[in-house]
Amino acid sequence: MRPPSQGIGMTSQRTRDRLVERLRQKGIRNNTVLEVIGSTPRHLFVDEALASRAYEDTALPIGHGQTISQPYIVARMTELVLEVAPRRVLEVGTGSGYQAAILARLVDKVYSTERIEALASQARQRFRQLGYRNIRVQHSDGCMGWPQFGPFDAIIVTAGGADIPTALLEQLAVGGRLVMPLGDRSRQILVSVTRTPTVYERVDLEPVVFVPLLGGAG
Ligand code: SAH
């Protein structure tokens, strides 16, 4: 694991420990993931007005009609991709940057794409301030992947769509895994797709709620 860890007071450490305990109760088993969540300052990834709620296990608004994902789902997607021991990970939907920040402490390099320019530049600035050096952010339509840096050992899509974008399947390395919410707003399921030398193996996991995956860079 790598830094950064922010100086924090006792009270907020207790608050974070409670969040970690909650995630454990909900079934997150990977201790390394729990440790990283417990030492990542989620309050710095939301607006100051919402900082007091940052260690609740809920999604929170980040402006532009988008949300920072619920910690449980960040932990779940992270532990699912870690099963294939990825070194280079692509994220579609940078949003606040929180998921990318969690990944950045567990893998070598994170490539993250975001279609809303203001969110992409805010996340970039956050990473700089917090000292994350292994995250690269691009303002683009993540459905196209990031061909220049592919193939990726793992791909995490943090917005829900009806289908898995073909470009993402193409940019997934053999032995790699993609995790994504599939479906529309009324019914979404988290799926995991593992690429073998011959096929893509899909496993349907659990119902989830994500903002929609949209086409084009807004
Ligand atoms: N991973 C984020 C979650 C943000 S919500 C976090 O930890 O905070 C999902 C994000 O996906 C939104 O910011 C939305 O703008 C973005 N998004 C939706 N469709 C996209 C697309 N086609 N390409 C890139 N980003 C997209």
Task: Give the low-confidence spans.
Answer: none
CATH architecture level-2 label = 3-Layer(aba) Sandwich
Q: What is the molecular shape?
A: globular
Helices and strands, in N-to-C order? HHEEHEHEHEEHEEE
Radius of gyration: 16 Å
Our estimate of the beta-strand percent is 25-35%
Structure description:
With 218 residues, this protein is an alpha/beta fold. The protein has a single domain (13-208), classed as Rossmann fold (3-Layer(aba) Sandwich). The chain is 28% helix and 28% strand. It contains 6 helices and 9 strands; from the N terminus they run ααββαβαβαββαβββ. It has helices at residues 10-25, 31-38, 71-82, 98-104, 117-130, 166-170, and strands at 60-63, 66-68, 88-92, 109-114, 135-139, 152-157, 172-184, 187-195, 200-208. The strands form 2 sheets. It has a 7-stranded mixed sheet. A two-stranded antiparallel sheet has the order 1-2. A hairpin with a 2-residue loop joins strand 1 and strand 2. The protein is globular and about 50 Å long. The structure holds S-adenosyl-L-homocysteine (SAH).
Blueprint (SSEs and pairs):
Elements lengths: L9 H16 L5 H8 L21 E4 L2 E3 L2 H12 L5 E5 L5 H7 L4 E6 L2 H14 L4 E5 L12 E6 L8 H5 L1 E13 L2 E9 L4 E9 L10
Parallel strand pairs: 3-4, 3-6, 4-5, 6-7
Antiparallel strand pairs: 1-2, 7-8, 8-9
Helix pairs in contact: 1-2
